[in-house]
Amino acid sequence: MFGAGGTAGSRIAAEAYNRGHRVVAAVRRPEATSYLPAGVRVVTGDATSERSVRELAPEADALVVAIGGGDRSLWPDAARTLLDALRGMPAAPRVIHIGGGATLLTPTGRRLLDEPDFPEEYRGSALGQAEALDLYRSSADGVSWTYVSPPPLEFHPGERTGRYRTGTEQPVADADGRSVLSYEDLAVAVIDEIENPQFRNMRFTVAY
User: Fold this and answer.
1) pTM to 2 decimals?
2) Tens digits of residue pLDDT in 85-125
3) Dihedral, CA atoms, 95, 100, 102, 106, nearest 10 degrees?
4) Is 51 contained in some domain?
5) CA 172 to CA 161: how far, in whole Å?
6) Burial grade of 203 (CB within 10 A; 0-12, 13-18, 19 or more)
7) In a domain, 1, yes or no
């Protein structure tokens, strides 16, 4: 997986390993991943490098992309690289892209990132994630993918409960209208999707 050094990625890597999966964590700085389970293999890699993708793909059932921290181009560059590298590859792994919640839709059908009160400081990354989603949706070359959107606002480290609900285009909300999830339960949902695919070639969202 790419991005195992991040808040979401580290939890996804740990969840996968704890459930018996072989996990290879491709990160830019391997020395900064001492908190991952000892059995996770750590290698130097980059989701925007076609060479890195091609090196990991042959032994993978899924390539999880949980990257962040770059400019707006990071996410579409990664999506484009993965689609190009996996196109035509025999038994290519499925891409599981951890995206943003700002691409989810309001009840009127507008993207949250297009709302007038959307925070300007997050607009660049939101637009980058939206471009990545568009690239996956417009691909018609046989690459299998799933784009995962966490809640747009209340998404934070917390407890692993093992429970969640899923949706597709609008945030999953509780009886009070809140869409909330921990990073730990996002990891549960991601590994559940890898083990039992329900959302091939589409986006889904997760919350309590």
Assistant:
1) 0.94
2) 999 898 899 999 999 999 999 999 999 999 999 999 899 99
3) 60
4) yes
5) 17
6) buried
7) no
